[in-house]
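ping. complex inputs:
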Amino acid sequence: MTEVLKYDLVIIGSGLAGLRAAFEAARVSQAKSGLLFYQRFTQ
Amino acid sequence: MRSHSVSAEGGASAVLYPKETGDSLDLHAYDTVKGSDFLADQDAVELLVREAPKEIIFMDHLGVPWSRDEKGRILQRPFGGMSIPRTTFAQDKSGFFLMSTLYDNVLRFDNVEMLHEHFVTSLLMDHGGVFRGVTAIDLRTGEFKVILAKAGIIATGGNGRVYKFTTMAWSSTGDGYSLAYRAGIPLKDMEFPQFHPTALVPNGILITEGARGGEGGYLINKEGERFMKRYAPSKMELAPRDIVSRAIITECMEGRGFIDEESGLCYVLLDLRHLGEERINKRLPMIREIAIKTLGIDPVDEPIPVRPAMHYMMGGIHVDLYGQVMLDEDKTRVPNLWAAGEAANVSVHGANRLGSNSLSECLVWGRLTGEAAAKYAMSAPPDSMLEYTGDIATKVANEESRIFDKLLHKEVGAENPYSIREEMNRTMDTYVYVFRDKSGLEEAYSTIKRLRERFPNVRIEDKGRYYNTNLRDVLELDFLLEQAELIIVGALTRTESRGAHYRLDYPKRDDVNWLKHTLYFYTTDGPRLSYVPVRITRWKPEERKY
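pong. complex structure:
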């Protein structure tokens, strides 16, 4: 069974623009945001 | 926290002290438009320069330890193509400090949930052109997930790993470009990757523009000459990146470069010795550490070897002035989707980005899109947008089958994905670099087409679910091959030289035919190109001299 997650806002990416967007979205509203991180530790 | 932003060294541009320095928003805008070789949309540039100072102060209040003078005032240093020192910096670790500060502060909010180690595989769009969410793999478990949302922001960064010699992180595979493109969203100006002049040879690690520009390092050829006097006599090492990159490669082509024995790469030297140990330690500590640790060269005592490397994608997802994603040339927006940062093309950089404008862009459009998307999500859409039924469920099932049945659990496959990637990298480094021409681009195009034909036959050795890096690499390779083709098609079609796109067979800028943006629309037969005009508000195109 595929897991289904639900948010008001999803931000794809955890760089400077994504984090700044997440901060502002959280600051100006009660929107529940999902911030999608993808870290890469290997070549 | 491993996005490529964390590697940003130089700083963020903004007009902070107009009275003391003579700087102005108009001057910052003009420098940016001129640096872009007049391809930037000037209303976007005006928005950038107007909002950037507020972001610098905001980040200061949030806790970024900007470098300061003895009176405690925030310092600024010169960068290439800027008339006045306006690059705000935190030593040579500006990105690291910005990211750390923002991350710490985002943790304060209970309504932000961080989904670490999730790899997005597709955007879910309904038939009405409305964004509904994404599919993703939780790399830690291999679980396939559906993430539905009332609004979305794509902030996935650039695609430097199309090339082998790049300053960009291994994660810079441009996934967001392909996610959008395949969902029917046009990309813009993808023929304009930026080559940063000073990447360390042979490993490609960035040596900040702050070293040659802001702090006054010299570029030296094999004859011991500061060769920039021939290419940009007034700006010298402080010329914009496209001009310095072409100068370095010209020196190499004319036999005045050095050759690295290990890689065979030609390079010139960046000499920082005259700055002295104290200044290097204070302003460029990471550069010194990188050179010592990776090459065994201490820039206090010896010059360091550098050459241009793929560093930034000026192109990106086609968005309007405020970062809202477009579905066609200029009429239809996706009502609930935005893009920001390097993933987006709001067109402030045009054909050549000036150093330190990208961090400012990330901050300004991060804020604008975050605010707009959150307000949209809280005001307009009904909860039915979050229903997992019908067409969306079918798309999810198809995507799961594509990844797990057709790639991961495929029984046979003769092609090694890492060999394909190596050949793609070599092709791009050779033919789609600082200088281009028709025959080289055609050679590159046919090679990438062959590689894309081989891709469906790739072999994934690791059949497991838990942190399957083999599968992830193959998914990224699929994105990278697509973007390599787009870069080449755009470069072949644009028969002029502008900014970072230099055609040896068309060495002049051609405003009559090419003062316009290229749009790339997905079709099963390859990209369909279309064009939109450059938005010019105040600065008419002129000859670009430094």
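Chain B touches chain A through 75 residues (CB under 8 Å).
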